[in-house]
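Journal club prep — side note

Before the paper discussion, L.F. wants everyone to see what a predicted structure for a comparable chain looks like in token form. Sequence:
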Amino acid sequence: MKVTFIGGGNMASAIIGGVVARGTPAGDLGVVEPSQAQRERLCARISGVGVHPAATAAAVEGTDLVVFAVKPQQMRDAARALAPYVAGVPAVLTIAAGVRCADLSRWLRGYPRIVRAMPNTPALVGAGISALYATPEAKSVAAVAAQVLEACGEVLWCEREEDLDAVTAVSGSGPAYVFYFLEALEQAAIDLGLPAHEARRLAYATFDGSMRLARASTDAPATLRANVTSKGGTTAAAIAVLDAANVRQRFIDAVKAGAARAAELGDEYGKD
């Protein structure tokens, strides 16, 4: 499988590393990256990967999949630069948040076989989850896109492209929510008199262990929470404070706000 990446930043580097770790020869992978310093870093990290300073016919010759891994605000220019050479490519995958398939197709002069994905940053350590949507024209070739993203974690398919706005708010932004609560738990431990290094260790281990327990159990999160919350105990006192402040609903509202903003950004990025 030959794959050409448009953009060689952190996410592209993580995916390339995962694909190589799964057995794809580095020589079957190419990267179009205008920054010389970034090209040098890629070559130093993954020996044998092909690098190109600009999109050309040679950069995508014989490739099975082109992966757009640039920032959303760079997508229009990147797509238009590739447009003269993409017609013969079997499939295109975009991981740029908010950029819709119809807009990318237009910038690519009507190219139809597009898979759009929303990965998240745990992909950098092989623990991500990506949601994918394939245009009708891409369904027969979409498996290669999933194969690439599976190198960095789990994948799931969406039947509707608009569902990716919800995915963006839930799992795309989700790591930030986890880090937000980690910050708070760590600070609470410090405020209670624990040394900073112990506070962080406790917070990290608690999140990690709780997720391992959740994944190992068939119980819903509400049941798992109830199992820890003895009536009249310390956990009940803490949860009562959160409930009094309506934290659960405010958190739900926050995620919905993220989804609404994702839809707005799609409108903004699609303007020519």
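L.F.'s comment for the group: Residues 3-161 form a domain with the Rossmann fold fold (CATH 3.40.50.720). Keep this in mind when we get to the figures.
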